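Incident review: delayed structure delivery

Summary: a single-chain prediction request sat in the queue longer than the usual turnaround. Root cause was a stuck worker, restarted by the on-call engineer. No data loss occurred. The affected request and its eventual output are reproduced below so the record is complete for anyone auditing the incident later.

Affected input:
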Amino acid sequence: MRPLHSWPSNAGRAALVWSILYASGATLAALLEPALGYALVPQGRGTAVEWSLAVAYAAAALLAGLMLRAPGLRWPPYAAWAVVLLCMWSGFGFLFSPAHLLRFLSRNQDPVDLAALANEGVAVLGAVLWGCAALAYRRWARGACPYCGSSPRRRVVDRPGRAAGYAAVAALVPYTVLKTAWALGLTVGYTGEGRPGLDPRYTSDLGIRLYEHGVDVTAVLALAGMTLALALIRPWGGRLPRLPLLALGWTGAGALAPFGIFLMLWGALAWAGATDTGPVDHAPWVVVVAYGGFALYGLGLARATWAYQVRTRRACTRC
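Output delivered after worker restart:
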């Protein structure tokens, strides 16, 4: 049996090995202070952060060992999802790193810290491994097939997730409309000087030319995101390559859901007057309604991607 096809049996061991290696790297960074890129927020590095991550991922290794020794316990898989969230937090910059490749969006981006980017990529790999381990052991604990999730008592129902996909599309409508309105010369929701949505210091020449003709590049990308969500729930999406759709769906969900949740909470606090560090030159509702829509989009995209994955996978021959 090929290793990829035996992933439920190998997921726990892979998560254990990864956790030991990642915790060892954090310990090494804390002791010797090499530039290994351990951080939880941009530039949020230091000995305290590295020791905290070393302890957290060492505890994750203990959890993986427990899951291997006692696969019938019901609570460890739930704790495993907390490790997935921690890995996603550690690797958030890697999930959002494709923005660095879009040079037509920005000309003066900060230089990329390759060590930090590589570290964040390893953390995202850990999120994948821990997600597989949590899923497999959760299925084992409830007596289901670890490969497809079906059980003798209850067959898994293939729910298309259309509502989630349409919700993801609707979530990006305010952002797309607002950015297009700004490109057309309106200033609704903007309280600063100059044109909203355009900073010549960072926008490329191509972006400026498109903006002068009423086209905001990020609005175009939002339309592409809507198309992705529709491809996951509409019949015509079934004629597209499966793996690229899954990769785009899970990557987009992992990057935009936490980003949108942060913006929504930040804008809501500023709107309520609970913080003085609100968005500069923007009305608080802009952050909540437009930018915060990325949260609903990310969550809806995750649900639609999962439904698409279940709907298009091959029939399980191991049940």
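Verification: The chain is about 65% helix and 0% strand.
Action items: add queue-age alerting; document worker restart procedure.
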